[in-house]
Description:
This protein has 13 helices and 22 strands. A hairpin with a 2-residue loop joins β13 (244-248) and β14. The radius of gyration is 24 Å and the shape is globular. It has helices at 15-26, 41-46, 48-67, 82-106, 159-162, 179-190, 210-223, 274-277, 313-328, 357-364, 377-382, 411-423, 428-432, and strands spanning 6-11, 31-34, 110-112, 116-120, 123-126, 131-139, 143-145, 157-158, 171-175, 194-198, 226-228, 233-238, 244-248, 251-256, 258-261, 265-267, 300-302, 342-344, 349-354, 367-374, 388-395, 401-408. The chain has 3 domains: 6-145 and 266-328, 3-Layer(bba) Sandwich (FAD/NAD(P)-binding domain), CATH 3.50.50.60; 154-261, FAD/NAD(P)-binding domain, CATH 3.50.50.60; 348-446, Enolase-like, domain 1 (2-Layer Sandwich). The model has no long low-confidence stretch (mean pLDDT 97). The longest helix is centred in the N-terminal third of the chain and has 25 residues, at 82-106. Strands 1, 2, 3, 4, 5, 6 and 17 form a 7-stranded mixed sheet that branches. The protein has a 5-stranded parallel sheet with strand order 8-15-9-10-11. A 5-stranded antiparallel sheet has the order 18-19-22-21-20, sandwiched between helices. Residues 11-17, 34-37, 41-43, 47-48, 51, 115-117, 140-142, 159, 180, 268, 272, 304-306, 311-314, 316 line the site of flavin-adenine dinucleotide (FAD).
Amino acid sequence: MTDYDYDLFVIGIGSGGTRAARVAAAHGARVAAAEEYRVGGTCVIRGCVPKKLLVYGAHFAEDLMDARRFGWDVPADCKFDWKTLTGNVFEEVDRISKAYNTTLDSHKVEVINERAELTGPNSIRLASGREVTSKYILIATGARPHIPTCPGHEFGITSNEAFHLESVPKRILIAGAGYIANEFAGIFHEFGAKVTLINRSDQILRGYDEQIRDRLLQISMMKGIDFRFNAKFEGIEKQADGSLKVSMSNHAPIEVDCVMFATGRVPNTENLGLDAAGVELTEKGAIRVDEDNRSSVPSIFAVGDVTDRIQLTPVAIREGQAFADTIFGNKPTRVDYHCVPAAVFSHPQMAGVGLTESQAKQKYGSVKVYVSDFRPMKNVLAGRNERALYKMICDGETNKILGIHMIGPEAAEILQAAAVAVKAGLTKDAFDQTVALHPTMAEELVLMK
Ligand code: FAD
């Protein structure tokens, strides 16, 4: 026993905080966790989960169209109801959030539904005014959407509000070019909105393999999504009829019904009492941590998006687990950030792991690139002119696989399995020796020449 109220106090019950709290408690720690909004955090409440469910819902637009070629009589007046979908999605979100609460309860984690901030290296003040002390504090407060400071920005929404729109906007402008911008562009387009995506630079999805993202751009344009590049936001004006007039550099203004900012995410470090505790931040305002997730203050740790390393749920979860195992489980563990797979749930999906072709060329000089550019069987029968593209990047000397990148139906599902091979350091020969599973799209991975 210590003189502190708790062994661990977690601020933020999202992906990282939940895992850390549960595992620390399982290791025998006395744990409390505070949440200012809803248990589950971004992923469950307004990120991965509801987003993926909207993506599924959206993709029926194409499936229903294709179904006719497979003999189904789909009526021409087949309708989509946004409220039915979002209502069901919210029910599912509630179910998962409750399941998180149940898990924390069963591990005897005290859940406090209040905002918390630090008052010192071992002390926390809750919104109710209650003060508590803890031997260790874990900051897992996540990140929030960045909103540009242009005139009229208050008329725009972010991904947080997108789930709660009353209806699908007829015309939507999405600012940004990252995965959230492209995913929502796909979602709203499939639901019938006229989508314009604007971006400051001249490319989408920076950091992803060039050829793969070019293929997505080409397919998205073919489907009817409008892209405006080198377009810097200048302002939003609300017009008498309620529509929004958006001005931008290098392009004519555009009139839309909704503007969504998907221009990056900012770590939640404001008004957290970090100064009082002496916690250092990075230039980007994230909590600076070492390989053990420890901040500049020895008793304070941080995991997940608030540290701005790789802002993905499975990474936050691993960091939470590593922290709890190291500090409370007598099992020092560090997260390995090498070969973290990532996906874009666009239509079709994109996914990748390891180095892109240009990264590999820069690092290794000599690389071999194997490509399969094909039209999936289902698309052929459906008359859908959409080609999939798989790339395997190998070390030119050893044939070790450095990266796999793909775009096509179910790319994320296929890539997850392939990521094991890349992480394990396999060579192309291991794929060549594996007999194809026919007929699948994934078999292209073992047939690349
Ligand atoms: P969070 O899950 O954000 O949890 C932080 C919690 O802290 C929140 O609940 C917040 O309310 C709470 N909090 C903040 N400040 C305080 C305070 N002072 N006191 C008390 N509580 C506080 N990742 C993927 O891997 N795959 C995806 O497909 C994917 N899709 C996404 C789609 C969208 C639209 C968005 C926005 C994100 C998506 N992400 C995805 C990213 C993923 O959601 C995050 O990386 C992940 O949730 C980070 O977990 P975390 O624990 O760091 O923070």
